[in-house]
Design goal:
heterodimer, A: 289 residues, mainly alpha, 0% strand, flat, B: 312 residues, MetI-like fold, 14 helices
């Protein structure tokens, strides 16, 4: 009996070793695949061109900020960056306000047909945004919103609203209704309930969707590429396509392209480092019960 | 409990038979007030434009030619003869289906890894968000440079190992494969996050019981994890299919649709014809095809979803 047991234990021990070896191999492969393009970008953005166009490859070129100086010098890089920030913050705030109000109505003010209405509203997510750019181009130009950050902000806020409403409805429903009920009995007005009572309780949801919407706006290419004509409203995502299009006699200016890329990636990476939990909560908020 | 609810309902119906009470009217008013900004936005920038797109698709609307007349199905007939659109249609279907299925599989594998217990798990979970979070256009350019046939890291290593040159973007098949794989790189981590959350919701004693019954790791995954995350897999698959159909960022950065039109997608053609060439009618007809594809996916998806809908 004892012999059988030790044999069995031994088998378990060996299989556990194999298991954890397998996990670590998978972990290493995963990390390399995820980080390799990031390393390549960083390495190219902080190098001079000569270090990038020679073989054998230079894996760790001596770091320089030369490319960023070139960008500031040759393209309206500061304006593009400012536009990206204004566009992203504006879109995030607009989306949150509009979605929070609608989500409250869907979560708390049950009226006949509100369930179907929410469903129809969420279904508009399936409308392909690229299929709307032609009419939107005309609509924006009619309202003098073509080539403005305001126009871009309105359009993208609309695109991001359904998903935000969906997640926020779930967050508001988790807050016990008794708290609001008590406030209503005490005679609190709707703005008071929304602003003073419910807002702090749904803050985690709002932060989550704020971060996700910021990332979406910061990364958005379709709308600025379609509706921005001058540096007045062009964002970093457009600027990287322009730098790419600018051929030099030595071929593509990869060190500059990657420098714009790094400028776009660094704020996003910092954001996910500090709010990893919030992001995961938001991405899974709608899909997982 | 039920009877009081029913009594309440009966009572309420009696009351609303005449006029809605003041409180009910107030509730309706508040509802409309709170919901209208969101609805106005969606109507103005999504529903109305889509209707317009469908209408434009039957007109020879072109900003440069200055034409705008009803032409029936002429645009759609021209689609069939358009080399770029025909290529884009076939690659779009291959691309979205292949990259979504591969993405789901890789996403499940990553979720399995992130759900395992090992040192460095927090690190893995954090870097997992990087591909999802970075701009698609930047990822496209980064991989284009990483795969550059002269100074790219991967072709360089390939040459060092095999002595042969690796030229990815000249050959249509390799270019297409590359677009699909980079899409998976970008998309699978997002799926993994959702699957991981689903896996964490599965009661652990299910696995314990299976282990006691002698089920191995693969059996536990296939018979416990899979059935329970299947609805999530279907939902994610549908979402990503529809989303991939509408986006062209990756192709724009990675291959610009080339070589030729081998990796062009419908979304990219809409952008080119509509925004770059101002052929509004023709671009709208491509959008019409895109909408049709979305509708087909929706219908297939609903059927699939009903079959796999389980509760736990």
């Amino acid at each position: 009996m004892a012999a059988v047991k030790t044999y069995y234990q031994e088998r378990l021990r060996i299989s556990a070793i194999w298991n954890s070896a397998g996990i670590y191999i998978a972990f290493i492969v995963f990390s390399v695949v995820v980080l390799l393009p990031i390393y390549w970008m960083l390495r190219s953005a902080f190098a001079v061109q000569a270090d990038l166009t020679q073989t054998p490859l230079v894996y760790l070129p001596s770091p320089t900020l030369h490319n960023f100086e070139m960008l500031i010098d040759q393209v309206p890089f500061v304006e593009y960056t400012r536009n990206s920030i204004v566009f992203s913050v504006g879109t995030t705030v607009t989306t949150l306000i509009v979605s929070y109000l609608a989500a409250y109505a869907f979560a708390r003010l049950r009226i006949r047909g509100s369930g179907i209405l929410l469903w129809v509203f969420l279904l508009t997510m399936a409308l392909p945004d690229v299929g709307t750019i032609v009419p939107l181009y005309r609509i924006l130009s009619r309202f003098n919103l073509l080539d403005t950050i305001t126009g871009l902000t309105i359009v993208l806020s609309s695109t991001l609203t359904p998903f935000t409403v969906w997640v926020l409805v779930a967050f508001i429903k988790q807050v016990p209704y008794e708290i609001e009920e008590a406030a209503i009995i005490d005679g609190a007005s709707l703005p008071t309930i929304l602003w003073r009572i419910l807002l702090p309780l749904t803050a985690p949801g709002l932060v989550t969707m704020g971060v996700i919407n910021f990332i979406n706006a910061w990364n958005n290419l379709l709308y600025p590429l379609s509706f921005s004509v001058t540096p007045a409203s062009k964002t970093l995502s457009v600027s990287i396509t322009e730098v790419f299009a600018g051929f030099s006699p030595w071929g593509r200016p990869w060190e500059l392209i990657m420098a714009v890329g790094v400028t776009m990636v660094i704020p996003i990476t910092l954001l996910i480092l500090v709010s990893q939990r919030a992001i995961v909560r938001g991405l899974t908020g709608g899909a997982v019960k | 409990m039920t009877s009081t609810l029913e009594n309440n309902a009966v009572a309420r119906r009696k009351m609303t038979l005449r006029l809605p009470s003041k409180a009910t009217r107030r509730r309706y008013l508040l509802f409309v007030l709170l919901v209208s900004p969101a609805f106005v936005l969606r109507l103005a920038t999504a529903v109305y434009p889509i209707v317009q797109t469908i209408l434009y698709s039957f007109r020879n609307y072109s900003l440069l030619k200055g034409t705008n007349e009803f032409v029936g199905l002429e645009n759609y007939a021209n689609l069939a003869n358009n080399y770029g659109v025909r290529g884009a249609l076939s690659f779009t279907i291959i691309y979205v289906v292949a990259s979504t299925i591969l993405g789901l599989i890789v996403g499940l594998l990553i979720a399995q890894l992130l759900n395992a217990n090992f040192k460095g798990r927090t690190f893995a979970r954090t870097i997992n968000l990087i591909p999802w979070a970075i701009p698609t256009i930047v990822a496209g350019y980064a991989f284009r440079w990483l795969l550059d046939d002269q100074f790219g890291l991967i072709p360089y290593w390939f040459t060092e190992l095999t002595g042969q040159r690796m030229v990815v973007f000249i050959d249509p098949t390799y270019a297409r494969l590359t677009v699909i794989l980079v899409h998976v790189w970008k998309d699978a981590p997002f799926m993994a996050v959702v699957f991981l959350a689903g896996m964490q919701g599965i009661p652990l004693d299910l696995y314990e019981a299976a282990r006691v019954d002698g089920a191995n790791a693969w059996q536990r995954f296939w018979h416990i994890t899979m059935p329970l995350v299947a609805p999530l897999v279907i939902t994610m698959g549908l979402f990503r299919l529809v989303w991939s159909l509408a986006s062209f960022d990756l192709v724009f950065g990675l291959t610009s649709g080339g070589p030729g039109v081998a990796t062009s997608v419908l979304a990219l053609q809409i952008f080119r014809e509509g925004i770059l060439f101002f052929k509004f009618g023709f671009a709208s007809a491509i959008s019409g095809v895109l909408l049709l594809l979305v509708a087909v996916i929706g219908l297939v998806g609903l059927r699939l979803y009903r079959r796999f809908d389980v509760t736990y």
